[in-house]
Amino acid sequence: MSTDLSLCATNYNSHPITAKSVASIVDLTSDLDREVVVVDNFSGDGSFEILETLSLDCPLRVIRRQSSRGEGRQIAFENSRGRYIVTFDLDTVYNEHWGRLVHWAVATRINFGLSCVYSQVYPRELLTKVGGWRGFQYWEDVDLWIRLAGLGAYRTYPLVCGENFKRVPGRGSLERVLRLYAKCRDKVAIADWIPLSLYIRGYCAIPWGLGRMHQIAVFLPAFISGKMKRKRLCGPSYDTSLVRTSSINVDIGLVPSSRLMDTNSLYNSAEGCRLALERGDLGFLPGAYD
After folding, report:
1. Residue 283 and residue 289: Cα distance in Å, rounded?
2. Domains (ranges, CATH) in the chain?
3. Are 41 and 66 in contact (CB under 8 A)?
4. Rg of the chain over CA atoms, in angstroms?
5. 3-class state of residue 182 by DSSP
6. Which residues, 6 or more positions from 273, have their beta carbon under 8 angstroms from its beta carbon?
7. What CA–CA distance (Å, rounded) separates 290 from 277?
8. Tens digits of residue pLDDT in 70-113
9. Residue pair 110/125 in contact by the 8 Å Cβ criterion
10. Considering the entire predicted model, what is its pTM?
11. Among 30, 66, 79, 148, which residue carries the largest CB count within 10 Å?
């Protein structure tokens, strides 16, 4: 039996925000027929146990599976029943604007994918049509958006849906290296507008030392892997320019336009990255500031 709404997330070491995040999305949708599906990637900080305890008192199902974020989102989707899929992050506490967004999407029966800041809404049949999420640890949502945009079925509304509490990336040196590698690989696979020459100039601009050597040593094999991944997953119709244009922006009027996030970024073009580099801004490098 289907429901109106499936609230889907992945989890990896989201403590101490876990319970507050779940409480916020459950409270804000209490009048809707909904379920919550979370895929936990073998968290070791107690957040999995917190989710299991919460599932005793609210419509929450927890699935434990080793997976990338893209794979985890897909597993959650495949185990959901909602006509609309709403993704949320367990390191974010959601606000009433998010609640209004979800109610609006269900009431208007949107027929396109809509991304906001920290949350997205998708009609189920649309996700099925494009094949859902794929095996990306990073940029997994962008990969989906590109394929939706290829069907003319993607819009963005930069509503800030909550307060995000970022955590330290990785609990040990090996995990941090693996995360940096995945960041580099997945960005190279998708962000085809950034040439290798700009990456090289960017890494050379990092002050000389162990940090610079570490970044370069991780990036070079990740670059090769990323190019191979793109060739394997992204065909000739995979057009990243479709999500780098203002034509996908909408304003549905839930808050004054002045309260929407400015999502314009220099990093969305090769020329923008070049200009950023000239002024010493290395933000286009994956993990440059981690």
Report:
1. 8
2. 3-164 (3.90.550.10), 173-237+263-278 (no CATH)
3. yes
4. 19
5. helix
6. 193, 194, 198, 202, 266, 267, 284
7. 18
8. 999 999 999 999 999 999 999 999 999 999 999 999 999 999 99
9. no
10. 0.95
11. 148
